[in-house]
Structure formats: structure tokens, C-alpha cells
Automatic annotation (TrEMBL):
GO terms for biological process: cell wall organization; peptidoglycan catabolic process. SUPFAM superfamilies: Zn-dependent exopeptidases (SSF53187). This is N-acetylmuramoyl-L-alanine amidase LytC. Residues 25-84, 85-148 form the SLH domain. GO terms for molecular function: N-acetylmuramoyl-L-alanine amidase activity. The lineage of its organism: Bacteria, Bacillati, Bacillota, Bacilli, Bacillales. Residues 199-263 form the SH3b domain. It comes from Planococcus massiliensis. Residues 1-25 form the signal peptide. GO terms for cellular component: outer membrane-bounded periplasmic space. InterPro entries: MurNAc-LAA_cat, N-acetylmuramoyl_amidase_3, SH3-like_bac-type, SLH_dom. Keywords: Cell wall biogenesis/degradation, Hydrolase, Signal. It holds the Pfam family SH3_3.
Length: 488
């Protein structure tokens, strides 16, 4: 019983900084151990609800901060209203996780866009920009980069690099941004005159060799550790070619010439900047409005698949992955327009949501993909893999239903939303709405929510296992999940 349908778009960039049980979140980060140099500052900010982890378990301190993230973290710290809204910037839709803060910060004159009407939300922030932002946000007065940097150094909020520069063009990582923010908000975190704070992050840059960390600033100092290239160190003072550093709570000295301001071999530590994933998932709840879809047991297909679609979206909303839906209410869209919707919105995958109906006797779950190689949709292998991962999670969610499997759909009556799509596409039939067994799941709000989680996980499984997108791995922890094994 398929006749799908519908759309409306909803750009949702989920936040890394969405508020979440701030009281206990800080202690749970597996990547912020007790000796992490920014532990106290991150804990302070998380407990205040100003900054959150990428997930409940990971803060990802070494990732660079994007402009949108910086706006959200600063905006929250200033107590601004973060309700999502239109921003007027062509590249920041009302669905962007930071749209509310960006708009409010622009109003206050703290942040601004570019002359071409863009904001470039996913561009990583530079230290010079960070200095100006903090100056404006907290009223320190520095309007040029150099004046802003000088203010931060004089106040004990930031420090320069061993070469005497502020590192205006260097990017800034989450751990360091947290330190600067905490010091701006709370003077007790600031560096007192004469104090060595080890808060300038640099990286060991020795190629395949290790770097000797010594007990004193000379080659006769005892070697207390051997640091691998790429190790992040907190630099305190530097003189005569030696830098006083701290790593994992241990203090010592290394030759300054082997430290660099950027991590060797990686311009961006992560393929997808936080705050704006390059991935977009298209969800297509079937039918709508005049087209009820299958009917049974007092339920209409158009309503249950919309409900499951919205649940699915809510899971993606906790990650940076974008979601666009062909419909978010009881409206109708032609089948061909649904297929076009995916390419129009730069979708990476398309998932059409349906329930089956027969005569009450058929039951179970199945997933379809278009399999004709000479088709308009050339993504046969991708679509098949997507279908496999979705079906696997659907069965996991509603385990007592019959598994009708993953089926190629290439008959004469094949589905336009699959056939005419231009991205990997699958159509899930989550159960039979007119069957007395299946309706126990389909008719339950709690079970439909589970199905939303399943479709979220199946999609992640596809990105991870088929596309090799390891950057999405942290998103599993938003639902306490883990990747499926390779099934395709
Ligand atoms: Zn249907």
C-alpha cells in the first residue's frame, strides 16, 4: 500500500552545544581526564550550561571551533535568548542550531557577517577573531585585532606564543576557547602576573621522531618523557630556545623549535566541522492530506509515518547532521516532487516511511530499494546498503515482527520516489497497519519513538559502514548506541 508523498523543508543543524543535564555532564567526558589542562574551566562552563560536549561522553577538546559554535557559546554565556529564528544571513537558516544566538549577537554588535550577506557559520574561528569577539562581548574595548589581543593578554585571559606573537591567524580549539571563555567570565581562572599557566596549546612537530621532555631547560636536563609528534602540550614561558611545558599534569622543558602552532599533518582535525555537518538526510513520511495511505485498526498510515518521521528527526537534531523532511504536517506532495526534493536540498540519502496493508493476514517489516541498473537513479549499491542497515535496525527495534527482508524494487509498478531519485534511496514498510500483531507496535507512541531511533541508527550505520564516515561515530552516543557490524 504505497503511495507516498510530501514535503516541506526543515534545515536542522543540531547543536553540539545543546543544553543537557549540565550538573553531571562534565565528569562524564571520556576525553577530559583529571589531568587535562582545561578540566577546571570546561567543568565550570558545562555546569553553568554555557558549553556542552559533542555528546554526553565526549567533549572533543582538540576540535576547532566554528563561528556558529563560538556565537552559541558566547551567546549562552551572556544569557542571550537562543530561540532559533531567521537571521537574514543567506547561509544561516532559522533551523541552524545557533541561529538565535547569531541574530542576538549581531543585534548587540558583538558579531557580524560578511559584505556578501553570508555569515560563514561553519568556518573555523581564528585566534584574532576570538580576541575581538571576547572584547566586544565583555566590553573590553579592543576593536582592532592587536588591541583586542593586547587586552586579553593584559587581563590574563590569553597568552601569546613563544615567538612573541598572539597567533592571530592560528585557529582555536574547543579546549582553548573554553579556557578563554571561563577566564572572561570568572577572574579566578585568570593568569596572575608572574604565574605560569601553560594555557597556550602547541603541538610537538618532530616527524617520525619523539621529542625529549627534560627536567631542565638544557640538553643536560634529565629526560623525563618522550613525546610523540602531534602531542598537544600546554606552553608556559619560553626563553633561550627552551619552552616550559605541561603534558598530562607533568611539567618539563622541550626545545621550542620542535613546537608548532598547528597540529602537524592535519589542517582540520575532523572531516566535518562541528556545528554544521556536510551530511543531509531526507526523510519522506508517505502520503498525507487527502491521501491517507493504508488504514487499519483505527489508524491511518499518513499519521503514523509522520509521527515516526518526526521522532526520527528529533534524534538527528541531537547531532550536527542536517535533516530535511518532505512534510512535517498533514500535507501532500506529488511523488515526483518528493524525489526531486532530495537533489534540490543536497540530500545525501533519502528514506521514505510507510506502513503496509493487505487484508489483515499479512504481517512483518520490509525495505525496498530501486535495483534497475539502467535506471534514472544510479545509486543501486548504495541504496541496497542503506536498505540493509535500515531493515536491520527496524527488526532490532520491533523484534517480534516477521522479517520480510530487503527487496529490490524493479517491477513495472515500481516506486517513483526510489526510481526517480538521484541519491541513495530506500523505502521502509515498517509493518502492516491492518494486522493485529503489527498494530501493537505501530499503534504505540513509545514503539514509534523506538522506530525513530532505529531509522536514525540505520542511517548512521550506512554512513559509517558504507561511506566510511568515521566522523559520525560520536553521534551514536546520543542514543547510547554503537555501530552495526558491516552487513552490506
Ligand atoms: Zn504507504
Amino acid at each position: 500500500m504505497k503511495k507516498w508523498i510530501m514535503m516541506l523543508c526543515f534545515a536542522l543543524i543540531a547543536s553540539i552545544i545543546v543544553p543537557q543535564s549540565p550538573a553531571n555532564a562534565s565528569t562524564n567526558f571520556k576525553d577530559i581526564g583529571d589531568t587535562h589542562r582545561a578540566k577546571a574551566e570546561i567543568t565550570f562552563l558545562v555546569e553553568k550550561g554555557f558549553v556542552n560536549g559533542v555528546s554526553n561522553t565526549h567533549f572533543v577538546p582538540s576540535r576547532q571551533v566554528t563561528r556558529a559554535e563560538a556565537a552559541a557559546m558566547l551567546g549562552r554565556s551572556l544569557g542571550l535568548n537562543g530561540t532559533k529564528q531567521n537571521t537574514g544571513f543567506s547561509d544561516v537558516g532559522a533551523g541552524n542550531f545557533a541561529s538565535g544566538y547569531i541574530k542576538e549577537m549581531v543585534k548587540k554588535g558583538v558579531i557580524s557577517g560578511y559584505p556578501d550577506g553570508t555569515f560563514k557559520p561553519n568556518t573555523v574561528l581564528k585566534r584574532g577573531e576570538m580576541a575581538i569577539l571576547i572584547n566586544r562581548a565583555f566590553g573590553y574595548g579592543g576593536n582592532s585585532v592587536s588591541a583586542a589581543a593586547t587586552n586579553l593578554m593584559n587581563k590574563g585571559i590569553a597568552q601569546g606564543f613563544p615567538d612573541g606573537t598572539f597567533g592571530t591567524e592560528a585557529t582555536i580549539i574547543r579546549a582553548d576557547f573554553a579556557v578563554f571563555l571561563a577566564r572572561s567570565l570568572n577572574e579566578s581562572f585568570r593568569v596572575k602576573p608572574g604565574e605560569v599557566s601553560f594555557s597556550t596549546t602547541m603541538y610537538v612537530n618532530t616527524g617520525s621522531d619523539t621529542l625529549n621532555m627534560r627536567s631542565a631547560p638544557s640538553n643536560s636536563g634529565k629526560v623525563i618523557s618522550k613525546l610523540k609528534s602531534g602531542t598537544a602540550v600546554g606552553v608556559g614561558t619560553s626563553s633561550n630556545g627552551w619552552s616550559n611545558i605541561r603534558v598530562n599534569g607533568v611539567v618539563g622543558y622541550v626545545a621550542t623549535s620542535y613546537l608548532s602552532t598547528t597540529k602537524p599533518g592535519s589542517v582540520l582535525p575532523s572531516p566535518a566541522p562541528i556545528g554544521g555537518s556536510d551530511l543531509t538526510v531526507i526523510l519522506d513520511p508517505g502520503h498525507g492530506k487527502q491521501d491517507s495511505g493504508g488504514i487499519g485498526n483505527g489508524y491511518m498510515e499518513k499519521n503514523v509515518v509522520l509521527n515516526i518521521g518526526l521522532h526520527t528527526k528529533s534524534y538527528f537534531d541531537k547531532t550536527p547532521i542536517n535533516v530535511k523532511m518532505t512534510r512535517t504536517s498533514d500535507t501532500f506532495m506529488e511523488l515526483r516532487d518528493r524525489a526531486k526534493f532530495a537533489s534540490k536540498n543536497n540530500g545525501d540519502i533519502f528514506v521514505s516511511l510507510h506502513t503496509n496493508a493487505f487484508n489483515g493476514t499479512a504481517n512483518g517489516q520490509e525495505t525496498y530499494y530501486y535495483a534497475k541498473t539502467a535506471a534514472t537513479n544510479p545509486n543501486v549499491k548504495q541504496s541496497r546498503a542503506l536498505a540493509i542497515y535500515l531493515q536491520n535496525r527496524m527488526m532490532e527495534a520491533w523484534p517480534t515482527l516477521r522479517n520480510r527482508g530487503v527487496n529490490p524494487n524493479n517491477s513495472a509498478g515500481n516506486y517513483a520516489v526510489l526510481r526517480e531519485n538521484t541519491v541513495p534511496a530506500a523505502l521502509v514498510e515498517m509493518g502492516f497497519i491492518d494486522n493485529s500483531t503489527d498494530i501493537k507496535y505501530i499503534g504505540s507512541e513509545a514503539e514509534r519513538k523506538k522506530m525513530g531511533r532505529a531509522l536514525f541508527l540505520g542511517t548512521l550505520d550506512y554512513f559509517y559502514n558504507y561511506e566510511g564516515r568515521t566522523d559520525i561515530l560520536p553521534y551514536y552516543s546520543t542514543v547510547s548506541g554503537s555501530p552495526a557490524k558491516k552487513l552490506h
